[in-house]
Design brief:
The radius of gyration is 19 Å and the shape is elongated. Helix 3 packs parallel to helix 4, helix 5 runs parallel beside helix 6 and helix 7 packs across helix 8. It has two domains: 149 residues, NAD(P)-binding Rossmann-like Domain (Rossmann fold), CATH 3.40.50; 100 residues, Dihydrodipicolinate Reductase, domain 2 (2-Layer Sandwich), CATH 3.30.360.10. It has eight helices and 13 strands. An eight-stranded mixed beta sheet has the order 3-4-2-1-5-6-7-13, with helices on both faces. A five-stranded mixed beta sheet has the order 9-10-8-11-12, with helices on one face. The chain is of the alpha/beta class and 255 residues long.
Length: 255
């Protein structure tokens, strides 16, 4: 079954990676692209369709909306997608309460997949981090370090925030400076590094008496995220309404 995709944010870094990979697949049709009004690439080709500033027009040609646009306006895009009965797959980070509420409503109508990171490897990293926390217990300190390119505008990364959620710390400390004293038991430290053109590195450090365990994921190309986004689109196409995660996509992929 071919999956027709309307790609929102099709001319951004992730959008271009998805376009490149979709062109190499036999079961994904990039049916249309969506960009902001006035974008210089409006009217140019995008898969079997064109780049438009109208989500409604793009959705008429698609089964699934894959959204890599900015968080601003996400609530409206989710609402519009769900109203047409199309599935929504989002790699949008920093959603506000209104957008999250809209996502919950949409999940009652259509399949939705929201992921801070579409990499299958990161999905496994999150699972491993949570399991390691359970096995090692509170005697092990936990720190999360994420590194991204200098153009990234939010910190910490959505992936780091998801890792912190899985680690279920008693409190979170974003960086440290000055005489901070002894680290409280159960505190998770989070550190954001911005440098060069790093695609995305995530490190989780568990430190205990006399030993240290480190879990690390390094993305060397955005193609890893693009592959996961397309896997999520395949997963969502034709599925029952609901709120799904990359853990669900990975489980289906494994089966």
């Amino acid at each position: 079954m071919k999956t027709r995709v309307a790609l929102v944010g099709c001319c951004g870094r992730m959008g271009r990676a998805v376009r490149e990979l979709a062109a190499e697949t036999g079961d994904i049709e990039l049916a249309a692209g969506v960009e902001v009004p006035g974008h210089p690439e409006l009217g140019t080709s995008c898969g079997s369709g064109m780049v438009t500033d109208s989500l409604a027009v793009a959705l008429k040609r698609a089964d699934v909306a894959v959204d890599f646009a900015l968080a601003e306006g996400a609530a409206g895009r989710i609402r519009e997608t769900a109203a047409t009965g199309r599935a929504w797959v989002g790699g949008v980070t920093g959603l506000d309460d209104a957008a999250l509420a809209e996502l919950e409503r949409a999940a009652g109508l259509v399949p939705t997949v929201l992921a801070a990171n579409f990499s299958l490897g990161v999905g496994v990293l999150c699972e491993l981090a949570g399991r390691a926390r359970e096995l090692l217990g509170p005697e092990f300190d936990v720190e999360v370090v994420e590194t991204h390119h200098r153009l990234k505008q939010d910190a910490p990364s959505g992936t780091a925030s998801e890792l912190v959620r899985r680690l279920a710390g008693d409190s979170v400390c974003h960086g440290r400076e000055g005489r901070v004293g002894v680290k409280p038991r159960g505190e998770v430290g989070v550190h954001a590094v911005r440098t060069g053109d790093v695609v995305g590195d995530h490190l989780v450090v568990f430190g205990g008496p006399g030993e240290r365990l480190e879990l690390v994921h390094r993305a060397t190309s955005r193609s890893a995220f693009a592959a996961g986004a397309l896997a999520a689109a395949r997963f969502a196409h034709g599925r029952a309404p609901g709120r799904y995660s990359m853990a669900d996509v990975i489980a289906a992929f494994r089966d």
